[in-house]
Amino acid sequence: MMEPGLVLRLRSGDAVAFPSHKVTHFNLNFKGKRASLVFHSDKAGLAWCEDGNGWKGNKYFSRA
Description:
Layout: H1 45-51
């Protein structure tokens, strides 16, 4: 998680809950199999349509 500077080393069966709309998060490189179960609501749905919840133009999503 970017803002708090956390890298979570989780084991099979571990769970993490956090407000994803407030914390930049992504997966690091990984070898093996991985699965995620993601829950969300449409609370920020309009903001996503307008500017990707503030991610529009972010270097991580821009095309080279």
